[in-house]
Design a protein that fits this description.
The complex is a heterodimer. By secondary structure, chain A is mainly alpha-helical. Among the domains of chain A are: 44 residues, no CATH class; 56 residues. Helix content of chain A is 72%, strand content 1%. Chain A contains 19 helices and two strands. In chain B, 16% of the residues are buried. In chain B, the strands form two sheets. Chain B has a four-stranded antiparallel β-sheet. A two-stranded antiparallel sheet of chain B has the order 3-4. In chain B, β3 and β4 form a beta hairpin. In chain B, α1 runs antiparallel to α2. By secondary structure, chain B is of the alpha+beta class. Classes of the chains: A mainly alpha, B alpha+beta.
Chain lengths: 418, 110
């Protein structure tokens, strides 16, 4: 690719989300807004490599898209009402390139809320958020999620159609609706992060690009909705977890578990940012939000320079609070691990054994590997081996399966040695 | 990818103090970069006569205080940025320089 083409592509990507947001507001339709944005991008990628990137590329793209919108509305009688609306807006709103900064922030926030609207399935929300806010192509999303490109393309087309059919307004919810809608936004961003952090399938243990994408979205949201404590809680959680990315994978791509990581490789700058975001969440009165609590737990690890410095009693307590505000078997499983670290493996196993009958954890590989780990520590290698083998059979992630299989072998050896 | 971006300038050539307009435009730019999630940390190096060099050679430490008249190219402003790739790094840098004015910015992956 030539340098001019790479430059045009980079600029287009930088402008993309704001372009879509602006057009979605002007047309009142996210799907249409995205299509118009895409048309403008095609024109830019054709023209900019020869003509050079214009001085105000955002205004250029918006103007081109707006012209296409007007052409389209002229041709399409069904959309005449919207055309009239646009005409009125255009007459009163002034030129596009004079749009004030605050307006675009509002539009970006509307775009996030719409892309994460509960009328959509969760995978559709994820795909739409990556496409519209992250500016990823369908091919890039498909690669990140290891699914065929047509699957993602279809998912996005269907999502846009659903939003249109449900007449989802392009707006930021307020009042009673807002907490639930915001929690959907946070969930989508954290799902993207987690898919990168602990890839559910495939040959890589982590896919850092997805993590970075989610962290960027989190930072954006923290700027757009600064009064929401949980927004900072999520940003804190992701920054601190991302700080461990360089240490989570060994030279051959094998996973390195938290307590075995070389903490010198943790990214101090991200830890610092994460702790600052956590402080922000707490200042806003959000210390007991689920994301802030998880960030506080991550912060306990981040503050410990050596594994043995970890304040496990505090982590146990934080998991206890988290289990109160957001009861979940996975939280209980994590609490069991913390309990075992603070008060010995038997304390952890007692709680884990209560979770074995939990239907939602029946095929959860981490339950089996945690149980295996605790049984090993308690000198019960035969049972540990069975658990590790079970865990290896349950995970779809290659490197994780190898790690678990290795631990099963170690258990077998310990068994025959004992 | 993380990049260290810094300006290099000759310390003997004085830089005029920024106008209020420039400061406002630069403030808006920094806000935009923060919002985009690309700006991690930024700052400017203080005057060279306040600089100190610590040398370690043959088991001996030497502490040298400025000014260091021999220096012709010095780090002025610096920023730690997180970009998807080099093309994005270049485009953001162009935007910064269009505001900051003529000069040279070095972009190094870190």
């Amino acid at each position: 690719m030539t340098q001019t083409h790479a430059a045009a592509e980079a600029v287009v990507r930088m402008e993309w989300a704001r372009l879509v947001a602006t057009l979605a507001r002007y047309t009142g339709d996210v799907g249409l807004g995205e299509e118009l944005a895409q048309d403008a991008v095609v024109a830019a990628l054709e023209q900019w490599p020869d003509s050079g990137v214009p001085a105000s590329p955002g205004a250029w793209l918006t103007t081109v898209a707006k012209r296409r919108a007007i052409d389209l509305f002229r041709r399409n009688r069904e959309l005449e009402r919207k055309y009239a609306q646009i005409g009125r807006d255009a007459a009163t709103a002034g030129p596009f390139d004079q749009a004030a900064g605050d307006d675009i922030d509002d539009d970006m926030l509307r775009l996030i809320f719409t892309a994460c609207h509960p009328v959509l399935t969760v995978p559709a929300r994820v795909a739409l958020t990556l496409r519209l806010l992250g500016g990823l192509t369908t091919a890039e999303i498909a690669r990140a999620y290891l699914v065929p490109e047509p699957t993602i393309a279809q998912r996005i087309v269907r999502a846009k159609k659903t939003l249109g059919q449900a007449h989802v307004p392009f707006e930021t919810p307020d009042g009673q609706q807002r907490p639930a809608r915001l929690s959907s936004v946070l969930e989508v961003i954290y799902l993207i992060f987690n898919e990168g952090y602990s890839a559910t399938a495939g040959d890589d243990w982590t896919r850092p690009d997805l993590c970075h994408e989610a962290v960027r979205l989190g930072r954006l949201l923290a700027q757009l909705a600064p009064a929401e404590p949980e927004v900072h809680g999520l940003a804190a959680l992701m920054e601190i977890q991302a700080s461990r990315l360089p240490a989570r994978t060994g030279p051959s791509g094998a996973p390195v578990l938290l307590l075995d990581q070389d903490r010198a490789r943790w990214d101090r700058l991200l830890i610092h940012r994460g702790l600052a975001a956590l402080a922000r969440a707490e200042q806003l009165g959000g210390a007991h939000g689920p994301y802030a609590l998880q960030a506080a737990i991550a912060a306990c690890h981040a503050r410990a320079f050596r594994p043995e410095d970890t304040d496990w009693a505090r982590i146990t307590q934080l998991y206890g609070v988290l289990a109160g505000v957001q009861p979940s078997p996975v939280v209980e499983l994590n609490r069991a691990v913390a309990l075992s670290m603070a008060y010995g493996p038997q304390a952890g196993l007692d709680l884990v054994d209560q979770l074995v009958t939990e239907p939602s954890l029946r095929n959860y590989h981490l339950l089996a590997s945690v149980r295996g780990d605790l049984l090993m520590k308690l000198g019960r290698p035969a049972e540990a081996q069975a658990e590790f083998e079970r865990a290896a059979g349950l995970t779809r992630n290659g490197p994780e399966r190898e790690l678990t299989a290795l631990r099963a072998q170690q258990a077998r050896r310990a068994r025959t040695a004992g | 990818m993380r990049y260290l971006c810094y300006t290099l300038a000759d310390p003997t050539i004085p830089i005029p103090p920024p106008t209020p307009e420039l400061m406002a435009t630069m403030g808006a730019f920094m806000e935009e970069a923060t919002k985009a999630g690309v700006l991690l940390s930024a700052g400017a190096a203080g005057p060279l006569d306040e600089a100190t060099k610590v040398r370690y050679r043959d088991g001996e430490f030497t502490v040298l205080d400025g000014p260091f008249t021999e220096a012709k190219e010095l780090v002025g402003g610096w920023a730690l940025m997180e970009y998807r790739d080099k093309a994005e790094a270049i485009e953001w840098t162009k935007r910064f320089m269009a505001i900051a004015g003529e000069g040279e910015v070095t972009i190094r992956p870190v």
